[in-house]
Amino acid sequence: MTSIYPYYFTDYHRVHPDMPFTIDIHLIDRFPAHRHDFLEISLVIEGSGKEIVNGVEHPMEPGTLTLVLPFQFHELRADPGSTLKLYNCMFSVELLTDTRESAAGFAELLLGGEDDRPTFFQLTDKHATDMARIFQEMLEEFEGRRTWRIAILKAKLMETMIRVDRLRSDFHQQASIPVPKRGELPDSIWKVIRYMHVHYRDALTLSGLAETFHFNETYLSEQIKRHAGVNFIDLLHEIRLRHACSLLVSTEMTVSDIAYEIGYGSSNTLYKAFQKYKGVTPGSYRSGIN
C-alpha cells in the first residue's frame, strides 16, 4: 500500500480518528522536501537512495532507520532504477504519555539533547529484522480492529522509541561512527525549536528565547522564519494547536481545560487561535472528528 502526504502534514483530520498515529508501507521514487509537525520514523525494507534532513544527506538502504523530528525538512530520492520501499510511522509524542509530567519527560527524551545525535542508523541484520518485525506488528494492529488495539500500538511504539534511544547511546560510545556534516543549518536554531516543542506550555516569548539562547532578537526571528517556515508566533500557535487537536480527538477534556493544558491563559484565546489557524471552533473540530 502506498501513500502520498502533503508538503506540510499538520492536520489531525488526516490521521486515524482514534489517536495521533499512522503507519504504512511506502513505495518512493522521489518525495520532495516537506515538513510536518509529527515525529516520523521509517525503516527501509528494499531499494536504495538517499534522504536529506535539514540539508544533511545520508544513504538509504535496507536496514536504514531514520527519525525525523517535528518541523524538520526532509526529502527522499531513490537511486536511478531503484524504488525505496519502507515502513513509515508518524505520531505525536502525546500518544506515549498519560500526564503532563510524563509528556514533558518523554518529549525531552525525543526532542532534547545534543545536536550531534544521529538522525539515522544503519542497523545490523539482527537489529533490522527485529525492528521490521515490530513495524509489521504495528501495521497489522493499526489496520485491524481487535480489542486492546490502541494499548498494543502504544506499547510497540514505546519499544521502538526505546530501541532508538539505545541506538543513540551506542552511537556516543562508538567514536568510529561518522557524524554527517550539518551544511548551512545553524544547530543552535534547532535547539530553540526543540525547546519550544518541549516547553510550549510555558509563557514563551521571542525576547525570552533570545535571551536564553544568547541571540539577537531580530536574528532569531529571521532564523526561525527561515528554517521552520513560519514566524515565532505562528510556530508557537501551531505547536500548541497540534496538542489541542490531539486532546480534542483522544480525550473528553473541556475546552477550558485544554486551553490551560497547552499554555493558553483562557478558552477565549484558544477559540480565537483555533478559528484563525483551523477555520473552525474547537467544538466543531471535535464533532467533525467524532
From TrEMBL:
Top-rank taxon of the source lineage equals Bacteria
Q: Which UniProt keywords apply?
A: DNA-binding, Transcription, Transcription regulation
Q: Which organism is it from?
A: Paenibacillus abyssi
GO molecular function terms attached to this record: DNA-binding transcription factor activity; sequence-specific DNA binding
UniProt key word DNA-binding: yes
* Name of the featured protein: AraC family transcriptional regulator
Show the Gene3D superfamilies listed in the entry: Homeodomain-like, Jelly Rolls
Ranges of residues in domain HTH araC/xylS-type: 190-288
